């Protein structure tokens, strides 16, 4: 009896000591916690990102809703004067994309601050590849300037887009279709088919630079139009870039839907390397584009001073639609009779003609729209001729 009583008293003492010790440790823990948070707040970088991720899960199926195994998924990136592509990990018919600023900053650190837009591009064997609409990345400068700076929108033009705020997650199902004939028809200004036209085709995502050069474009092949003006292109749900490979020709903007841009780039006046690139979605089963070919018109000019011919005067021209590079150059130099003849002359290539004096400043100029149908006569003053 006494042993049981003593045993019970000892057990109570032990329990009281254990509880007292737990309270002491607990109070110390709660006292330390605010200090830890204070220290953490003092040392945390001002631009640090939240620890939670912004994630999009994509599942790919065919027209019968059966899973489709993805062979390649990429992130297509655009900065001014630069374009890049990052391969994304896929798991069968699933793709999980981390849209957090820290994720892309760690993989594209040099240009992330200049990121203008991004695309998702997906390929699967036996199916037409698909590219998303452009979207702004959270945390990028372009994203900060967007109307909804805290929202990223992924749209494959298949119903409801995925709109995610930072820290949110979303799931979408994307349907991939079997390839189908993708025909483009080329016609001239008179509406007649243009056969024998060479065209380079690309999957397009960027020409963001001063020169309009394709920096983000995947080659699809080189094509030549048949007698009916037709081209059969590789199929895909994306914007196409079609580049004419013949000089002194240009795409005309059609009134129909789908055309994003016509990029015109001129080389030097004497090389004839005028390039025209059209960027457009293609409308099934056939899309018609109009191609304008420049008219050749030989130029005949006479350089005079007080009605008398002047030799060794150089006639210059500036190029039309010149975005970069050498936008002006010589057309010809007058002979002893003051004559300049340019047989291979295409007025649509130029913006204006001009002549410079001995000091290098322009002493005469004329818009191409004011060119006469006959011989161009330019009468310079004595000060404009100088000692040539």
What does this protein look like?
The protein is 15% helix and 40% strand. The chain has helices at 2-43, 101-107, 141-145, 382-385; strands at residues 55-61, 72-79, 82-87, 90-91, 94-98, 115-123, 130-131, 151-154, 162-165, 169-175, 182-187, 198-206, 216-224, 230-233, 240-244, 249-252, 259-265, 275-280, 286-293, 299-305, 308-309, 314-319, 328-333, 339-342, 350-356, 362-367, 376-380. The chain has a 5-stranded antiparallel beta sheet with strand order 13-12-15-18-17, with no helix packed on it. The model is unreliable at 1-50 (pLDDT under 50).
Number of strands: 27
How many strands, which pairing sense, and closed or not: the largest β-sheet?
5 strands, antiparallel
Q: Assembly type of the shown chains? A: single chain
- pLDDT average, as an integer? 84
Radius of gyration: 34 Å
The poorly predicted ranges are 1-50
Specify the structural class: mainly beta
Can you list the strand order of the major beta sheet? 13-12-15-18-17
Q: Give the number of helices.
A: 4
The percent of residues in helical segments reads: 10-25%
Q: Assess the beta-strand content as a share of residues.
A: 35-45%
Q: Kindly, what is the distance between the CA atoms of the first and last residues, rounded to a whole number of angstroms?
A: 134 Å
Q: Give the overall shape, derived from the CA principal axes.
A: elongated
């Amino acid at each position: 009896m006494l042993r049981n009583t003593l045993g019970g008293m000892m057990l109570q003492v032990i329990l009281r000591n254990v509880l007292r010790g737990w309270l002491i440790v607990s109070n110390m823990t709660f006292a330390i916690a605010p200090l830890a948070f204070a220290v953490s707040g003092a040392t945390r970088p001002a631009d640090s990102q939240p620890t939670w991720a912004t994630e999009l899960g994509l599942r790919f199926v065919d027209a019968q809703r059966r899973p489709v195994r993805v062979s390649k998924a990429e992130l297509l990136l655009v900065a001014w004067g630069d374009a890049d592509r990052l391969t994304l990990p896929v798991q069968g018919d699933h793709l999980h994309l981390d849209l957090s600023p820290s994720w892309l900053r760690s993989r594209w650190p040099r240009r992330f601050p200049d990121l203008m837009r991004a695309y998702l591009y997906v390929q699967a064997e036996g199916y037409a590849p698909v590219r998303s609409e452009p979207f702004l990345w959270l945390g990028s400068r372009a994203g900060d300037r967007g109307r909804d700076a805290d929202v990223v929108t992924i749209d494959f033009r298949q119903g409801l887009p995925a709109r995610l705020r930072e820290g949110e997650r979303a799931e979408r199902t994307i349907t991939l279709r079997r390839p189908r004939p993708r025909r483009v028809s080329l016609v001239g200004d008179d509406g007649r088919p243009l056969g024998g036209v060479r065209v380079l085709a690309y999957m397009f995502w960027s020409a963001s630079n001063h020169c309009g050069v394709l920096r983000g474009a995947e080659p699809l092949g080189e094509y030549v139009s048949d007698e009916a003006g037709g081209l059969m292109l590789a199929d895909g749900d994306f914007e196409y870039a079609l580049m004419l490979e013949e000089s002194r020709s240009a795409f005309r903007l059609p009134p129909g839907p789908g055309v994003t841009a016509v990029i015109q780039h001129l080389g030097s006046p004497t090389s004839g390397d005028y390039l025209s690139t059209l960027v457009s979605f293609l409308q099934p089963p056939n899309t018609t584009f109009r191609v304008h070919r420049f008219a050749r018109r030989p130029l005949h000019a006479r350089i005079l001073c007080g009605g008398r011919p002047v030799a060794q005067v150089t006639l210059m021209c500036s190029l039309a639609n010149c975005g970069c590079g050498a936008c002006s150059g010589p057309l010809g130099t007058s002979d002893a009779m003051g004559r300049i003849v340019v047989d291979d002359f295409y007025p649509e290539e130029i913006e204006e003609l001009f002549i410079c004096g001995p000091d290098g400043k322009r002493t005469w100029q004329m818009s191409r729209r004011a060119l006469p149908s006959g011989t161009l006569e330019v009468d310079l003053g004595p000060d404009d001729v100088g000692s040539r």
